[in-house]
Amino acid sequence: MKAKGCTYNGGSCKPVTEACEGCQRLAEYETGKYCTAAPEPEIKWKNGNCNLATHVKTVVATKKQKVNPIKASKRM
Question: What angle (nearest 5°) sits at the alpha carbon of residue 59, between those of residues 21 and 63?
Fold first, then answer.
């Protein structure tokens, strides 16, 4: 959605979903709140988190590697 209107799918952008609340990509117009990055936000949230969401933080799990104490002592 832009100031001139929507150019997606014949001029019909979809309003944001509840999951989009708090995102910095929201823009409010007379007709409602729209996403500036995705014309149909519910599809972005269909299979999990939206990849364009600025309010969702992804946590990358790091695996601790087990150290063999015998090999570690030899390296020193």
Answer: 170
d(CA 72, CA 7): 62
Amino acid identity, residue 48?
A: G
Helix, strand, or coil here: 28?
strand
Question: Rounded distance, CA 20 to CA 9, Å?
Answer: 21
Dist. CA 3–CA 7, nearest whole Å? 11
Answer yes or no: pTM beyond 0.85: no
Query: Mean pLDDT of residues grouped by 10 in the chain (76 residues)?
Result: 70 82 85 84 85 82 85 82
Q: Which helix (H) or strand (E) holds 35?
A: strand 32-35
